[in-house]
């Protein structure tokens, strides 16, 4: 291969998100000898580390012709400190893209193809444009059960895998789409208080205003190393960690970023994302909650049934016991939508506050009960009573606090600086919540990036309200975001509908 | 809407290709009040122009907290000169992406949906990630005839449209996939020499080493304004211009950039791309050449037939007469693959050099003959003879030179600085050319960005060669690119196969 003399590294301090960019002067000898243009994909080599990056050409003194400047993601990936020199050459074409093209043309993805794709994604070889094409190729119901299994296996195989040396390792997951449905921390606390092992790892939000990891981060540290995670579980029987920080199914977080930008969350990739994390985390028994409702992510029982089939079959092929529970997805759960607001609901349930949201409590108790039965802790049918008992006695709360303390300490829940109440425009009965609109409202207000942002529901379906009564409260930490949310609300009056009475 | 005080503009001189990026300091008040992070999509407003851009956050003194710095594409789109102040707020979600998602989920794209998508693409509202999803959603045969027509119409309707006040306006197009098949300039010269009107606009290369616009740019200026184009056609009856410079179907060039990055070129988008440019250019009669061969873009007659059907039907619905010719796509045409090498072949045919490639000449004459018959200049069956006559007499050459002179002058064809010959490893007969490998070889050598780069074929199918005899010559203008091409060649010995004789 052609060798150039190397360029001096420069840190520009530009955060281009996960994209790895190298900025080169138009007059640089490497640019000229290699014929680089903006968007060329190149291989940057320090002699110790090498990465694939995209070129941006600069036309003034920002970068000299003897320098190679890097975006923050590229700088970190190369492990640079400053003072190094790097060699830059053309990157080889990403061969696994031929599998993506073949899939777009109606071909099938087998395990070797998936492994090549997922390995290349994990090692940063895919540009955002290529990632988006892969996500689009696999979206909707385009992946068969065999392809879903192949993708799941490959996502497991490129990451780390934890072993617990336990016959029963419990896990639960909610496919999402129902704002505020944050049962997981409560279920973990109950199940662990009953002596079961539940090393829970969660994702951050994809298209929702909060994922369990976003919400738990309000209460404690969730970025645990694998060692720290094992220490927490050894001590408390459970943890509540962010999956990405322990390198379980690492390609998943890269794919999730693109799904978020596209507001797409496909069936096959959903199954692969969920089950790859479970298997890599060493789980043996997984309970999956699928909320079904007209404005939830899963809208019909037919759709839920297809998803259940894919989850159970893929799980079985991977040696995982999967139980699916389909729940009511007609309205948000609890009062809060957004990390901090949801964290407040969770604590109030665990503390048995009289004001705790009953629906969140009931759902968590029911799911925990199913898990206790699944694990054989109680006889079939006796799970709910046992779960109720552990919650009422305060054992679940104590277990939750112990987990948070072991993970790095319980944090104070922060409060938002801006609040605006949305009022009923007439008297009547609350007849409809649009989950999607409420979720988008919370996102526009800043959730999940702003922890305190979101929507706080002040009424429930079927409540009688008076004209001018607050229906929900928008929380934001930036004036611009609040204005943006209000702007959206003005155009989407069906977030919460009140059917007027004839007086 | 929330108003901020505005930020001073700064030109960083970073060329991020077509992507519009605004670089903001992490401490900037707008970043904090609006809650921007890297990859936020924002609206930047100068008071006169406004654009959608992606945010990159900077963490040092590169950009001060009172400044907004811009990539070159963003700077140009805003028409900045320096000294202006801009307002920045969250961009509204791109509503037309819901149509892209719906298409991915199996829905159909109608005209209003296509128009929304194409308008948003043209006005720069789509990020690269969103563009890639749209291209992937429409790839392969995913667009029905109705959808293809809707997409074509919308691509016409967002751009300019030329009217010629002529009953017959001729055009031709090759769907590509056959390296070196550069008949268009010769056909235009012959047809125009016969007195027909042929205002030819061409694209740059998508996935090939050269498009007609890339090749013509070696010989003359192809970036004509619409006024200049009309002046050239009024004077010479024809022109050979780059389509993008006259704003005909402007969304096409944005889409093409993404197709190139993905190495994807889909059927529906191909039809929309070709026919939208033809209708916008005011053509009435279009001849379309589809080379068919095992390693051409179209590999089977079945595939060619489907494409023909889509082209003819869509053309008819748009009031365009479309004639499709299926040609032999088994080996490259002419000797050169790459802009300058192909330009050399074209001139040698037009000048009736004894060494001119016969296959290129024959194809051009045949296609020109079909056009003369289609236009009624000669009777059916007499086209080829007439075309031959005009070429032999030098009238076609004179017409070609006149067109180049009127467009801005005939240029000298540049020569490459690096050449390497690839030799036959045994004696025998040349039995196979792999068009795809040869095209990729030419691209790796630098074509089309480097005009002189490419591959020069020294033998044809069926030729008898001796061991050590040169089969083809690689041309490059950068040592790195030559090494890269040779590296690829070492792994792809089937670019040109010689079947050895038993001596």
Task: Outline the structure in words.
Chains A, B: It is an enzyme of class 2 (transferase). Chains A, B: It comes from Litoribrevibacter albus. Chains A, B: It catalyses: thymidine + phosphate = 2-deoxy-alpha-D-ribose 1-phosphate + thymine. 2 copies of one chain form a homodimer. Chain A folds into 4 domains: 7-90, Barwin-like endoglucanases (Beta Barrel); 97-157, Transferase, Pyrimidine Nucleoside Phosphorylase, Chain A, domain 3; 170-243 and 267-407, Pyrimidine Nucleoside Phosphorylase, Chain A, domain 2 (3-Layer(aba) Sandwich); 418-500, Alpha-Beta Complex (Aldehyde Oxidoreductase, domain 3), CATH 3.90.1170.30. Helix content of chain A is 40%, strand content 20%. Chain A has helices at residues 29-34, 72-78, 97-104, 111-122, 128-137, 145-157, 184-193, 212-219, 226-236, 251-262, 267-280, 301-317, 339-350, 358-374, 383-392, 395-407, 435-444, 479-491, and strands at 7-11, 14-15, 21-25, 41-45, 50-58, 67-70, 85-90, 170-174, 198-202, 238-242, 285-292, 321-328, 336-337, 418-423, 428-433, 454-457, 464-465, 470-476, 496-500. In chain A, strands 1-6-3-5-4-7 form a 6-stranded mixed β-barrel. A 4-stranded antiparallel sheet of chain A has the order 13-16-18-14. A 3-stranded parallel sheet of chain A has the order 8-11-12, with helices on both faces. In chain A, strand 11 (285-292), helix 12 and strand 12 form a beta-alpha-beta unit. In chain A, helix 6 (145-157) packs parallel to helix 11 (267-280), helix 11 packs parallel to helix 12 and helix 17 (435-444) packs antiparallel against helix 18 (479-491). Chain A starts with 6 loop residues before the first strand and ends with a strand. Strand 2 of chain A pairs antiparallel with strand 5 (50-58) of chain B, so a sheet runs across the interface.
């Amino acid at each position: 291969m052609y060798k150039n003399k190397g360029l001096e590294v420069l840190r520009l301090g530009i955060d281009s998100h996960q994209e790895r960019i190298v900025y080169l002067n138009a007059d640089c000898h490497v640019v000229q000898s290699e014929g680089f243009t903006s968007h060329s994909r190149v291989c940057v080599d320090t002699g110790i580390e090498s990465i694939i990056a995209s070129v941006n050409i600069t036309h003034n003194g920002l970068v000299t012709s003897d320098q190679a400047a890097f975006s923050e993601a590229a700088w970190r990936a190369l492990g640079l400190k400053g003072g190094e020199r790097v060699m830059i050459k053309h990157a080889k074409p990403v061969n696994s893209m031929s599998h993506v093209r073949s899939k777009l043309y109606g071909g099938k993805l087998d395990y070797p193809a998936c492994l090549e794709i997922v390995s290349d994604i994990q090692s940063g070889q895919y540009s955002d444009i290529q990632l988006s094409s892969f996500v689009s190729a696999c979206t909707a119901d385009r992946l068969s059960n065999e392809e879903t299994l192949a993708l799941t296996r490959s996502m497991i195989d490129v990451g780390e895998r934890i072993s617990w040396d336990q016959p029963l390792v419990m896990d639960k997951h909610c496919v999402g789409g129902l704002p505020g449905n944050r049962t997981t921390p409560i279920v973990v606390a109950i199940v662990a208080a009953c002596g079961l092992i539940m090393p829970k790892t969660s994702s951050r939000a994809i298209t929702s205003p909060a994922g369990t990891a976003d919400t738990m981060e309000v209460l404690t540290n969730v970025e645990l190393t694998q060692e720290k995670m094992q220490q927490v579980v050894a001590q408390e029987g459970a943890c509540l960690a962010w999956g990405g920080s322990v390198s379980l199914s690492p390609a998943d977080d890269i794919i999730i970023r693109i799904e978020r930008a596209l507001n797409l969350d496909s069936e096959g990739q959903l199954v692969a994302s969920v089950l790859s994390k479970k298997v890599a985390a060493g789980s043996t028994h997984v309970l999956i909650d699928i909320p079904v409702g007209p404005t939830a992510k899963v809208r019909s029982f037919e759709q839920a049934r297809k998803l259940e089939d894919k989850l159970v079959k893929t799980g079985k092929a991977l040696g995982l016991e999967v139980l699916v529970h389909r729940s009511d997805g007609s309205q948000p759960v609890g009062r809060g939508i957004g990390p901090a607001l949801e964290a407040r609901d969770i604590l109030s349930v665990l503390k048995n506050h009289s004001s705790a949201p009953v629906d969140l409590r009931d759902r968590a108790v029911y799911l925990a009960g199913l898990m206790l039965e699944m694990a054989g802790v109680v006889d079939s049918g006796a799970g709910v009573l046992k779960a109720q008992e552990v919650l009422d006695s305060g054992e679940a709360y104590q277990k939750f606090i112990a987990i948070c303390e072991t993970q790095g300490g319980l944090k104070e829940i922060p409060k938002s600086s801006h609040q605006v109440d949305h009022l009923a425009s007439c008297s009547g009965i609350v007849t409809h919540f649009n989950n999607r609109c409420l979720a988008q409202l919370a996102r526009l207000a800043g959730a999940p990036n702003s922890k305190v942002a979101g929507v706080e529901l002040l009424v429930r379906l079927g409540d009688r309200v008076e004209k001018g009564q607050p229906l929900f409260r928008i929380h934001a930490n930036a004036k611009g975001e609040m204005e943006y949310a209000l702007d959206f609300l003005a155009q989407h009056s069906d977030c919460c509908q009140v059917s007027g009475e004839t007086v």
